[in-house]
Amino acid sequence: VVKMHEAMLWHKERNGIRCDLCARRCFIAKGKKGFCLVRLNKDNKLYSLNYGKIISVNVDPIEKKPLFHFYPGSSSLSISSVGCNFRCQFCCNAPISQALVIEQTGKVPGEEYSPEEIVELAEKNNCRSISYTYTEPTMFFEFAYKTARLAHRSNIANVFVTNGYMTEEAVKKISRYLDAATVDFKASADPEFYKKFMSVPSVEPIFDSLKRMKKQRIFIEITNLIVPKFGDSIEKCRKLAQWISSELSSNIPLHILQFFPNYQLLELPPTPVSTLEKCIDEAKKTGLRYVYIGNIVGHSDENTYCYNCRELLIKRSGFSVEKNNLVEDRCPTCGLKMNVIV
Ligand code: SF4
Ligand code: SF4
User: Fold this and answer.
1) pTM of this prediction exceeds 0.70
2) Ligand having the closest approach to the CA of 18
3) pLDDT at 2
4) pLDDT value at position 100?
């Protein structure tokens, strides 16, 4: 039996409901679900079907989100529920992001948790933050919202790892409790790639969300997944970096991620390291101060260097911090303040 929880962010229209949670803004007729399959119109009221149904819960290093500049070296309780508003053909969490299992079984998988239990779990495991991640956090917005509000009372920070495809209303609503976000781009935000490989009609809402997050003073890091053959244009990567640098800030950390064959895109090879390095070079040329390589363990571009004097600030290997030379948030050598929350 699917337990239902009334949804936030929707309004009634003639003959149905309009969901205002993500940028798809689905029109949902009575008895139907939205594109994400986790929001149902029952008698012209919208319900979240995955509320409190936690499909994964782990204590992760915050570096895994990835967030390299937000309480480096801390632990983050990471949770998710099923569902996604994207259909990425290379999703590495497809069994939980693509909520087709609900269609097949009529059940929403996951273990029952209350927001209180999640916050307690975070405290018990000495987590500095709770991350809403693995799938798309907007898809379990109601649970994330309540948990985030409660977490703040216990001085625990909240992190969304998101595809950024939110409405203005959603960003506004969560912003009070959202401390940081990792916003994930694929293929340098190429609109054709988003249509073809992710079933996403437009990329503009992601850029809009980023601007709104900045305005709401949410700490931002950005990832860009470089997909061989179809999404590895150096020029497009440069353009995205340029946008971040000029429209947001040159202080925003950018992670250039290696693609790994997954789900339905198994015939592609992993992205060559040389391609990632070229992307990183281009991104740095736009003035971005912190550009990282992702998924290549042991590479020097996993480290943080002072953008002024090139001093090694944080040495990393994979998701672990091996050495942190920062003095509070400053370079120990030249004393310059870095964009790091400590
Ligand atoms: S969250 Fe997005 S995909 Fe799901 S019903 Fe609402 S508008 Fe549609
Ligand atoms: S947005 Fe993320 S979780 Fe959703 S399908 Fe794409 S890769 Fe998977």
Assistant:
1) yes
2) 1
3) 54
4) 74
Single-letter amino acid code for the residue at 220: I
pLDDT value at 242 more than 70: yes
Which residues line ligand 1 at a C-beta cut-off of 6 Å?
A: 19, 21-22, 24-26, 34-36, 39, 85
Rounded CA separation 250/255 (Å) = 13
Residue of the nearest CA to atom 6 in ligand 1? Answer: 19
Q: Give distance in angstroms: CA of 136 to centre of ligand 2.
A: 7
pLDDT, tens only, 1-27? 456 899 999 999 999 999 999 999 999
Q: How many helices (H) and strands (E) does the chain have?
A: 9, 19
Instruction: Calculate what percentage of the chain has a pLDDT beyond 90.
Output: 95
Q: Which atom of ligand 1 is closest in space to residue 35's alpha carbon?
A: 3
Measured CA to CA, the distance from residue 266 to residue 270 in angstroms comes to 10
CA–centroid distance, residue 84 to ligand 2 (Å): 6
Is the pLDDT score of 70 beyond 70? yes
Q: How far is the CA of 38 from the centre of ligand 1 (A)?
A: 8
Contacts of 250 (CB under 8 A, 6+ apart): 286, 287, 288, 289
Q: What's the chain's average pLDDT?
A: 96
Distance 1 CA to ligand 2 centre (A): 26
Residue by residue, what is the 3-state secondary structure of 28-89? ECCCCECCCCCEEEECCEEEECCCCEECEEEEEEHHHCCCCCECCCCEEEEEECCCCCCCCC
Scan for tokens 């990471």, then name that residue.
Answer: 78
pLDDT of 123 over the 80 cut:
yes
